Amino acid sequence: MDMASNGQAAITRTERGLTIAGTRTNLYDVMDLLKAQYPPKLIRDKFNLDDAQINAALSYIESNHTQVEAEYQEVLQTREEIRQYWDDRNREHLADLASKPCKPDQEALWAKLEGQKAQRVSVKA
């Protein structure tokens, strides 16, 4: 692990993966922004890190690039699998809801909502 100037580990492995010590920010979140070409100062500010923390993260990523990139690819795969699971589950749930008739006391609300949707579509067109 990378060491901070005080001799403490700057990057630690937690149940969430490689994490910047003293934070809940993992290196995979930092890598997302690096790959989106965010500058280090913006990444630092986004995660409320100090200069030593962002420098330790960037240094660790650079010096352990192969290992970190492999783990990052696994994280991306897991994220995609989770997203796909919820997309499928929500699609089924929404289709089930759409197939049920409206409750009589909600029909006026649905009609109003559909009218607002139609107005937005006509304004965009």
TrEMBL record:
Leader peptide range in chain numbering: none
Organism domain of life: Bacteria
Family matches, as InterPro entries: DUF433 (IPR007367), Homeodomain-like_sf (IPR009057), WH-like_DNA-bd_sf (IPR036388)
The name this protein goes by in its record: DUF433 domain-containing protein
Organism of derivation: Phormidesmis priestleyi ULC007
